User: Fold MFS transporter from Streptomyces benahoarensis.
Amino acid sequence: MAAGYAELLRTRHAARLLTGTLIGRLPNATAALAVVLFIRAEGGSYALAGALSAAYGVCTAIGQPLLGRAVDLYGQPRVMLPAAVVSALGMALLAAVGLHPLPLASTAMVIAGLFTPPLEGGLRALWPTVLKRPDRVHAAYALDAVAQEVMFAVGPLLVTVCVAAWSERVALLVINVIGVLGALSVVVSPPSRQWRGEPREAHWLGALRSPGMLVLIGAFFFVGLALGSIAVAAVAYADEHGGGMVSSSLLSALGVGALVGGVVYGAREWPGRPEGRLRLLVALLALGYLPLVLVPGVVGMTVLTGVAGVFLAPALACAFIVVDRHAPKGTVTEAFSWLVTTFGVGSAVGASVVGPAVERGGAAAGFAVAGVGGVAALLVLVVTKRFLGDPVRPKELVLPAEIDRNGAVEPGFRARRQA
Assistant:
């Protein structure tokens, strides 16, 4: 297992692209915490901090697909690096003005969010041309999902260290400077500079004109909803079971489960069509969420949350492969960005709707929302099964650059080699 991942990372440019992308995404991964800490340090209320953080999140959700479309049209360096710089300048503006005047601070958040570079989608567009083997691409998608879990654990720790060593303002600046350096590392690499999107049919819907993409977006909205609700429900559970570090333990167990599941899933090549495998993985994911409503003691609950996380990274990794197969020609980065965005929006919605459930029925009701989200995701995939049939291309998976990343579901589209 370890040898397979080591071989993948020894492939020329692979380790650099993965590391650079993770570092470049650090501002996005830590924005919620860093912004809240800064606003509170400036004397703002939690409500204001939450509102500004939400504004950043909403604008990121809007900007990612738009920037992804621009990457498909104009290439990665011409879009990714300028976007990273502008986003960092937005955060720098917030650090400079603080909360006064508030409209300027709000504008800074909008700029930072809208111009967050779609590095995640860009990396997944590069993997087939860098790795050139189906088994390595599958493993890379899984490793990417696992690395995200590590980043979301390490990122907040880095923010805390910067605050302790300097201040909230410095933490905000340092994180975003590091993010620009990560984006720079990616876009100056030969694979990023040489990558070109396929010629695309002019269509205002872009990647969304594929029925298969719409199915994936609908399903992973509910997966995100489930995950967002678990985060809030875990806090409610902690309040009912002594507080302290209980909620952190549950969320850490969820992350460890995802990490283990992703590593195991990516260590081998799986037979059969990825569309069918995705339905199975989402079914197992939903099955893992349902027992959380039992809310046993802390030890039992920690075990249950760990099990609930096992199939998250495999489901995401498999979804990336299905996106490759169903995204219309010339929309690969945009398609990946849509999936990432929808997942994030679903998580935000889950965090908001679970609140009333917790107030009425406690932690068990909160975890029930997660179960409903998982089941809804599965239902979307089952009811719309016909839209996730084989793409037009007759072969399951051909590399290099023919991983069906641009095989559209519309007649007449054919995948072609990237430049």
User: Anything to note?
Assistant: The radius of gyration is 21 Å.
